[in-house]
């Protein structure tokens, strides 16, 4: 008997690692074999980098999958899932690659396992090119909790790019399903109450004055003079800076984060973050661009749900296509205004 594989082109859309991660997650949950080609063809360095390789190996370990072609720089792999197993796992990237993206791959699977799991990650936590650990804790996991998925994060150390060295652990409690959610409260309404707004600067092996300048600049740009703020000094293997602006709602904190870079002034870091906040507030959206991308898979697994967001990124459009290809579920986009979109998956009757 010939083994059937769902073939997925990794060059589609934005051509990055999201195609790989979503495909792996859904392969395990649907128990369908997948074959990915042209992996990360849209990137300067194509194929599996360390964080992508770790995602595949993590997915393999939690279900005893059979794999082919899984090695660094590979652009073509096959993945045949086995039975999902909960337990204690430990995954180390070996670079400053994103531990949060590795977590993203296996979290939905372990959340639907028969018993609880604990997973320890080592690598990068704040690298500027992917969702940070701060985003995961403050924005994504609170929404998952409202969807019936309970997780707890314990952080040992943070890790900035390029040194990495972060270490953290997530405990995942089992659930029978994802509960649908609707998110429509406009961020602009929440931001009118300054007590919902906050400014945080993480600083490691750098002067605290950098973080304070970021805070002072953003307060001036956003007129958040009375909003709570603080500079948090952290100890990491290498220097780093993460500037975060937050708007709290009943469901989660919307996080706008910019990572400091060599040659980029503290004032410009703050202005970038503040610019994203202003665009979000003006849009009347409930969910910012990066969280919108992260919510697609949980909503698909819940079978229905909706939210409003800013103009969908190519990353989001690509993720929608992969979900449709594997699950056959169509997530619909409807433009409401020049800067506001409605994203929905309707329960089939």
Written account of the structure:
This protein has 349 residues and is of the alpha/beta class. The protein is 34% helix and 25% strand. The longest helix is centred in the last third of the chain and has 18 residues. The protein is globular and about 60 Å long. The model has no long low-confidence stretch (mean pLDDT 95).
What layout of secondary structure does this protein have?
Elements: E1 6-9, H1 17-30, E2 34-37, H2 50-61, E3 66-68, E4 77-80, E5 88-92, H3 99-111, E6 117-123, H4 133-146, E7 151-157, E8 166-172, E9 182-183, H5 187-191, E10 197-204, H6 208-222, E11 229-233, E12 240-248, E13 253-259, H7 266-283, H8 289-302, E14 305-309, H9 314-327, E15 332-335, E16 341-345
Parallel strand pairs: 1-2, 5-6, 9-14, 10-11
Antiparallel strand pairs: 2-4, 3-4, 6-8, 7-8, 10-12, 12-13, 14-16, 15-16
Helix pairs in contact: 1-2, 1-3, 1-9, 2-3, 6-7, 8-9
Distance between the termini: 36 Å
Global shape: globular
What is the H/E order? Answer: EHEHEEEHEHEEEHEHEEEHHEHEE
Mean pLDDT: 95
| Spatial extent as radius of gyration | 20 Å
Individual helix count: 9
Structural class by sheet pairing and helices: alpha/beta
Q: Would you count the extended β strands for me? A: 16
* Largest sheet properties: 4 strands, mixed
Low-pLDDT segments: none
What's the arrangement of strands in the largest beta sheet? 1-2-4-3
Helix content: 25-40%
Please state roughly what percent of the residues sit in beta strands, choosing from under 5%, 5-15%, 15-25%, 25-35%, 35-45% or over 45%. Answer: 15-25%
């Amino acid at each position: 008997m010939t083994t059937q594989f769902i073939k997925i082109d990794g060059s589609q859309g934005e051509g990055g690692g999201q195609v790989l991660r979503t495909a792996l997650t859904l392969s395990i949950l649907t128990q369908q074999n997948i074959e990915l080609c042209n992996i990360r063809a849209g990137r300067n360095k194509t194929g599996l980098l360390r964080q992508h390789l770790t995602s595949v190996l993590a997915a393999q370990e939690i279900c005893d999958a059979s794999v082919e072609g899984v090695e660094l720089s590979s652009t073509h792999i096959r993945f045949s899932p086995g039975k999902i197993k909960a337990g204690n796992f430990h995954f180390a990237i070996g670079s400053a690659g994103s531990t949060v993206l590795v977590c993203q791959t296996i979290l939905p699977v372990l959340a639907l396992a028969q018993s609880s799991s604990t997973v320890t990650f080592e690598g990068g936590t704040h690298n500027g090119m992917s969702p940070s650990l701060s985003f995961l804790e403050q924005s994504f996991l609170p929404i998952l909790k409202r969807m019936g998925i309970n997780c707890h994060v314990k952080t040992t150390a943070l890790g900035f790019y390029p040194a990495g060295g972060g270490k953290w652990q997530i405990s995942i409690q089992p659930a029978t399903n994802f509960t649908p959610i609707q998110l429509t409260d406009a961020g602009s309404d929440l931001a009118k109450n300054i007590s919902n707004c906050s400014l945080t600067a993480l600083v490691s092996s750098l002067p605290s004055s950098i973080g304070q300048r970021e805070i002072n600049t953003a307060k001036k740009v956003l007129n958040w003079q009375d909003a709570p703020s603080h500079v948090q000094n952290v100890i990491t293997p290498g220097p780093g800076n993460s500037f975060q602006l937050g708007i709290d709602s009943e469901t989660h904190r919307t996080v706008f984060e910019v990572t400091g870079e060599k040659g980029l002034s503290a004032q410009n870091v703050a202005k970038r973050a503040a610019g994203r906040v202003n665009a979000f507030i003006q849009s009347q959206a409930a969910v910012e661009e990066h969280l919108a991308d992260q919510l697609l898979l949980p909503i698909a697994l819940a079978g229905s749900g909706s939210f409003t967001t800013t103009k969908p990124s190519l990353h989001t459009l690509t993720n929608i296509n992969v979900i449709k290809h594997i699950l056959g579920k169509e997530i619909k986009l409807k433009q409401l205004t020049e800067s506001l979109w409605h994203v929905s998956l309707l329960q089939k009757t």
